Amino acid sequence: MRSAALAPSLIALGLIGAPALADPSLQDAVSGLDLFPCALSSLSCTTLTVPLDHRANDPAQTLQITFALSFATEESRGILFYFVGGPGGSGLASAEGYLSSFDPTLVENMDIVFVDQRGTGPVHGLACPKAQAAFDIAPAPLSDPDAILATAKTYVADCTAELDADALLAVVNTDQAIRDSELFRQKIGSPKVWLYGESYGTQLVQAYATQFPTAVKGVIVDGVVDLSLTPEQFYRRYTLAAEKLLAESFALCATIPACHADIPGDAAQLYDDLAARVAAAPVPVPYVLADGSTVQRHLTTGLLEASAFNSLYSPEGRAEFLRALAAAGRGNLIPLLQLGFFNMYIDPETEIGMEDPGWFGAAFYAITCTDYGSGSGTPDERAYRIFDEAKALAPEAPRLLRSYFLERVACAYWPHQGSDTRPAPYAGGDFPTLVLNGDHDPITPITMARSVLDHARNAYGVFMRGGPHVIWGRGLACPDTIVQALLYDGTLPVAREQLCEQDPIGDYTSLTLTDPAQLADPFTVARAVEIELLNYIPLAAWDGQQPTSFGCPLGGTLTATPTEPGTDFIFADCRFWPDLAFSGTGVELSMGHPDDGITLTLGFTGAARGDLTYLHRTADEAYSLTGSWNGKAAMLPR
Predict the structure, then answer these.
(1) Which pLDDT score is estimated for 590?
(2) Which alpha helices (DSSP H) does 286-420 contain, by range?
(3) What 8-state DSSP symbol labels residue 535?
(4) Residue pLDDT, tens place only, 81-132
(5) What distances in angstroms separate CA 89 from CA 107, 137, 156, 285, 361, one per listed residue?
(6) Residue 355's pLDDT is what?
(7) Residue 561 pLDDT greater than 50, yes or no
(8) Which residues lie below 8 Å from residue 636, measured CB to CB, with a gap of 6+?
(9) Does residue 571 contact residue 587 with C-beta atoms inside 8 Å?
């Protein structure tokens, strides 16, 4: 019945097989604005003065909102407003990375607008890294609700004091952000625009299209939030989805020979035993700092659960987490500790939250807590009600229950509360809506996307079996070609629902040098150094902008220095394994040339001794090795 009703309206709109109408280019539309180079990308930026509170009608209270503009390099096929996730993500800080990950035809054909939503960015970004780090790693046992509530109260009090932004906090929400971007659209001549949102951005985009339907040329939502869900329903749905995916990840390990070799027993049992251990008390872990000194850090429940939950966002993340878990099963807790620090934006050197130009943690709470209500009653009454709901859910969510209640308890004490009335389901409009989602999405489960598809007019779904959170722009023909055909030419999907596929877990990298006999083979050792560098979590998190030193996992240091062709390394008594250290240099070339690859010139001491020069060229995947090993000439395996 729904499809029969759609056909006449689609024909009348000229959407079936019709090319997109030529629109004024963004470059022409902003010709009267002051443009300047963006600080965090090669794009052009412009700043718009907007009301501090769009509903207050007070011209004396204003805010500066900055937009980053990517102009189509060919004839523009339309303007795309791109809204990133979070909430709390900076559109401007993310823009360069997003654009480089998409098919080059996107920047050729589309004008694209990114925005630093109010509460993000360098001018009015809301971040309280000290309070956030303390909150994120604090114990939160269900057996002690008073302690949980005290932790949440302390976080809200310390965070808001750290922010010192009371006037802004009251007006950092999705409704105000929509009106900021709509003012910009009107400022550039009110063209019809495409709205793309990922994750939290889907929440903003659905509300934008509902409030201002005449502004919209089309909607694309990716990793979809169902706006009609209450907070309890939303958190319940994604917590249970994440629990299921984590259990599947553990089961998949047994089917992957390399993972099963590293975790010969039950991966789920290994995790549960470790979780019980850290729940009893934070586990001390010797941690090597960048200067080579060793301090005591602690693996906590918060760090462990954050690593487990965040691993579920992508196939690669699941494989990385299983590798870290395998290391923990062999007594090395450092990879799990480092994953936890990385996922929670905590500097392992200081255990203080890191200020990140791309992420504003307090904006997450400012937006979330005012977009969703916490219910009636006093803050304590709201918090205890959430806690009671958590206790009821505990049997169904034994591993990731913290994800269900901790943010909600903090919102119960947040100084600004949202309405408890949820909006009606997104209804679509006289424009196409494309709904994208993976069925292995832990935070916006595919059930939410299907609900949006079922309620929206002129809507189409592309769903990925095995797919992660957010599926467009990962270099896969499905869904990329479907999205691009719609954007560039107005070509509607061939069916109301389509299915893509990918593996639910990425390539698993075996732990290295787990057998002492492997130390006899110099090629295996040199290859192990390269593998560990590629998988070293602090190095992978490095922004590659400034020379930076890192402590090696079990002692010594490595220094990475960016160069025009790649990266230079210096190693000083660096230990990835307890009985083997190496010193020397490395050069990584990544210029797209035949000589690209990594060269390591290293001296080894400990359980094996030698001097090796190892070369791995990525262009032809060839290896070479020279030097000496345990008193003999080093040779490649024969």
Answers:
(1) 87
(2) 301-311, 315-329, 334-343, 361-371, 379-393, 402-413
(3) T
(4) 999 999 999 999 999 999 999 999 999 999 999 999 999 999 999 999 999 9
(5) 21, 21, 20, 31, 9
(6) 86
(7) yes
(8) 523, 623, 624, 625
(9) no
What's the longest Cα–Cα distance across the chain? 82
- Long-range CB contacts for residues 41-44, cutoff 8 Å, separation at least 24: 41/68, 41/92, 41/95, 41/96, 42/96, 43/68, 43/69, 43/70, 43/95, 43/96, 43/114, 44/68, 44/69, 44/71
- Taking 60 as the threshold, does the pLDDT of residue 22 lie above it? no
Instruction: Tell me what pLDDT residue 12 has.
Output: 30
Amino acid code (one letter) for 183: L
- Contact (CB, 8 A) for 318 and 246: no
The per-residue DSSP string of 219-252 comes to EEEES---TTS-HHHHHHHHHHHHHHHHHHHHHH
- What is the Cα gyration radius of the chain? 26
Query: Is 548 exposed, middle or buried (CB count within 10 Å of its CB: 0-12, 13-18, 19+)?
Result: middle
Between helix 267-280 and helix 301-311 the angle, nearest 10°, is 150
Q: Which residues pair with 617 in a beta bridge?
A: 597, 622
Per-residue model confidence (pLDDT) at position 19 = 38
Sequence-ordered strand ranges (E) for 126-265:
193-198, 216-222
pLDDT band at 606 (very low <50, low <70, confident <90, very high): very high
pTM score: 0.93
- Res 593: pLDDT: 82
What single-letter amino acid sits at 550?
Answer: F
DSSP 3-state of 197: strand
Beta bridge partners of 593: none
What pLDDT is stored for residue 343 in this prediction? 92
The single residue listed with the structure tokens 């994604």 is 238
Residue 353: strand pairing partners:
346
Angle between helices 200-211 and 174-187 (to 10 degrees): 60
Q: How far is CA 182 from CA 29, 47, 187, 213, 367, in A?
A: 15, 14, 8, 11, 18
595 band by pLDDT with thresholds 50, 70 and 90: confident
Verify cis geometry, omega within 30 degrees of 0, for the bond prior to 479.
yes
DSSP assignment, residue 554?
T
Quote the DSSP letter at residue 434: E
Residue 546 has pLDDT above 60, yes or no: yes
Closest CA to 263 of 248, 276, 279, 250: 250
Cα separation, 111 vs 281, whole angstroms: 53
